[in-house]
Amino acid sequence: MPDQQGTWRKSARSSTNAACVELVVSAESTGVRDSKQPAAGELNFPRGSFGAFLTALKNH
Cβ(8)–Cβ(33) under 8 Å? Predict the structure, then answer.
C-alpha cells in the first residue's frame, strides 16, 4: 500500500468533467483511485507491477 502521506496526483491532461484517475507512488507500490470518488477505494500495485498493468491495457 502506498505511503498515505504521499500526494495523490491527477494527469495534467485531465479536465474537470473527465473520468480520471489519480495516482500516489511510493518506493513499494503505486495506488490508483477514481478522482471523482476517492473514498470508494483504491487499487494498489506492488513495485514493478503497475508498468505491466499499463502495458496490458495498451495492448488490449
Answer: yes
This model's pTM is above 0.85: no
* Spatial separation of the C-alpha atoms in residues 7 and 23, rounded to whole Å: 8
Residue 29: name the closest of 60, 53, 1 by CA: 1
| Residue 6: all three cell numbers together | 504521499
**In whole angstroms, what is the distance from residue 39 CA to residue 28 CA?**
22
Alpha-carbon distance of 26 to 22, in angstroms, equals: 14
Give residue 3's pLDDT.
45
Could you tell me the residue ranges of all domains in the chain? 9-59
